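FORM 12-B: Structure-to-Sequence Request
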């Protein structure tokens, strides 16, 4: 890809919830050349995806395909649809109006400065929304404008192909489960997610890691590397974005929080990145849950350098019984680890056996 094909001035960061993406966003936004907002347009990305699914006759699902062998058509068709779909002025007006709602981070600042309803494709509307928000925040002079959005990894193929720099952050799946389903974050949201849902999302994140790592405009990072070698990782980020280096010692400075709710499930931190906990899951997850996670993600964990606590076992999949206390009831219809889904995991284990 040539330099002329890069969409100058834009970048996109994403990853699974509870993977450190908010910390990454705060680091990026603190650079004088960068404007990275916290989830301003989650509603926009969600609504565009709903429109795609409705037009294709699929049931609404996040993420697309959900690592389900029978649902790959959802993922495969999304990027071509984004490429060819043109929004009418009426559709754009509706999408931009809903984009200001406070779901996720929200962008209520745009309510009185809505983008004129010109119509156009997804990328042009995305750019106008981000430029409008940067103007509202007085940051339109930033060299790179962007945001971090969770549950938006399905947009990566299209954005990369259209010249947008895309950054993906991945974290140890055991840490993701511990942070999502236990501690202060779980108390804030009020319930837990089925373990199978988190596992499937994480495996799909690793597939997206492969995409970003192989693309000239993609960058894939591990949370653990960010917190263990923050200065080196920030240098890599600045080089990738083409901006001046972060100041020496920047990772140790306090971070300016934009996100609602707790930034950490296990104690709020006012310091910077360096020295963050990386293995709190060891004191939180049950041995049975750990064995299940490690067995269900063994191939992906190996690829990203995450060591299992014990050799993964097929029995960890066949014998697992999930604790459903405070698990969100609406998700159990799709992610309850019943006999059918148990067999799917066992079949996957057999297919990926070394």
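FORM 12-B RESPONSE
SEQUENCE OUT:
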């Amino acid at each position: 890809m040539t330099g002329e094909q890069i969409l100058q001035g834009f970048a996109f960061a994403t990853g699974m919830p509870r993977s450190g993406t908010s910390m990454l966003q705060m680091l990026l936004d603190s650079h004088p050349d960068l404007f990275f907002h916290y989830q301003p347009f989650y509603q926009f990305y969600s609504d565009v995806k709903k429109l795609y699914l409705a037009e294709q006759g699929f049931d609404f699902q996040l993420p697309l395909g959900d690592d389900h062998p029978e649902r790959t058509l959802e993922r495969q068709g999304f990027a071509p649809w984004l490429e060819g779909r043109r929004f009418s002025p009426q559709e754009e007006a509706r999408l931009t109006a809903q984009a200001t709602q406070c779901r996720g981070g929200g962008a209520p600042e745009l309510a009185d400065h809505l983008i004129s309803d010109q119509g156009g494709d997804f990328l042009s509307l995305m750019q106008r929304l981000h430029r409008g928000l940067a103007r509202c925040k007085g940051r339109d002079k930033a060299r790179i404008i962007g945001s971090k959005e969770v549950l938006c990894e399905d947009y990566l193929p299209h954005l990369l192909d259209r010249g947008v720099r895309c950054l993906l952050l991945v974290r140890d799946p055991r840490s993701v489960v511990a942070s999502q389903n236990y501690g202060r974050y779980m108390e804030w949201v009020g319930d837990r997610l089925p373990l199978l849902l988190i596992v499937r999302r994480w495996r799909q994140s690793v597939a997206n890691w492969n995409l970003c790592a192989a693309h000239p405009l993609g960058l894939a990072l591990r949370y653990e590397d960010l917190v263990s070698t923050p200065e080196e990782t920030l240098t890599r980020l600045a080089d990738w974005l083409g901006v001046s280096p972060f100041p020496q010692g920047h990772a140790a400075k306090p971070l300016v929080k934009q996100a609602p709710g707790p930034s950490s499930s296990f104690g709020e931190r006012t310091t910077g990145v360096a020295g963050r906990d990386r293995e709190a899951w060891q004191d939180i997850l049950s041995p049975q849950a750990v064995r299940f996670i490690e067995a269900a993600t063994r191939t992906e964990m190996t690829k990203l350098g995450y060591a299992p606590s014990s050799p993964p076992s097929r029995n960890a999949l066949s014998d697992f019984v999930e604790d459903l206390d405070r698990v969100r009831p609406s998700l159990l219809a799709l992610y309850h680890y019943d006999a059918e889904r148990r067999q799917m995991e066992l079949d996957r284990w057999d297919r990926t056996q070394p």
